[in-house]
Amino acid sequence: MVFQDHTSAAQYMLHFLPEPSLVEAVKTYAYHIINIFHRHKSPASDSWQSQGVPISATTTEKLVSNHFVESLNATQGVDNEERISKWIEKDKLFYLMQKIAFCYLFHISIPEDTIPQLTSSFNLKAVPTILDLCDVLFINNSLPHDLRSEWALLFSSQIHGQSFTSMLGKLTNKGPTLIIVEDSHQHVFGGFASESWRIGPKFIGDTKCFLFKLRPISEVYTATGYNDHHMYLNVNQQTMPNGLGMGGQLQNFGLWIDADFGKGHSSPGCSTYHRMPSLSAEKDFSLEHMEVWALGPPPKEDSDDETDGKRSILDKDSGAKAILEMIDRGHHSEGLREIPDEEY
């Protein structure tokens, strides 16, 4: 089978590269692959395209000229076969698109979790998302397998406004999420949070977390294991940073969104993630657009059984709790809890 390894895929590609210039030949081949990929239909891909999230002509041109060609030019080999093989191994997005295209042509079933089902209720035709289908494909195939089945939009700064408070209400206690950021220079990047965001002074998360770039190039930066500084969220503190951060150190994060919404930074050389450059066009960036996506099946709700006297209204409304945390009133309802019999 062509896709058993990258060498086989490279050998197969060489049969379709008649031009003398390898770069021009790969560009021609890539356009054909993208066009075939675009024709692929499935309930999951239709759920995105019906909401106006296609592969646009502009995206196709950027993908081929900026991403594929740049990554090919950066790849060395003793001959064309070795060079293409190394390039495909490195460029997972092209490999995935080629795989889907050929499965479509030869009527081979594609794994259901290759493209997630879009389950959001927002009208993305009226308020477009930052992402296109290529972005979705690339990120989804970097996620843990149990989170690849469905995505739901929780927060969009274009829908909910440029508000850190609004974002907190949509973000906390929602299970694993994606943070997607577009800066004022149209660089798109973000991070995968492997567990629910919680307000507090300590880092949370685990080595499943990663950071990534989507434009102008697509790259994933996985955990080094050097430290556990994966997820940080804090507000209304005098001596601690206030905002959302992933990776790095306090005041020097791999990705940082300030509580004074609209600005952030991305520090190169972040020790939490492998070989990470600055994700944004400049270290300190202005936020143009931000989104938060929930991944996989929604987390199970806690029981609302009224006989459970250990819970307050804030336990049921994470948004209200997050907002109260911002004004330092997050635990004033603690005294209203009933005391279980065994604690008398």
From TrEMBL:
Gene Ontology biological process terms from the UniProt entry: response to oxidative stress
Annotated keywords: Cytoplasm, Lysosome, Membrane
Principal place of residence: cytoplasm
Ranges where the record places region Disordered: 294-317
UniProt subcellular location: Cytoplasm; Lysosome; Membrane
GO cellular component, one term: lysosome
Domain TLDc: 129-296
UniProt xrefs under InterPro entries: TLDc_dom
Superkingdom in the source lineage: Eukaryota
Biased composition (Basic and acidic residues): 308-317
Record protein name field: MTOR-associated protein MEAK7
Organism, as annotated: Frankliniella occidentalis (Western flower thrips)
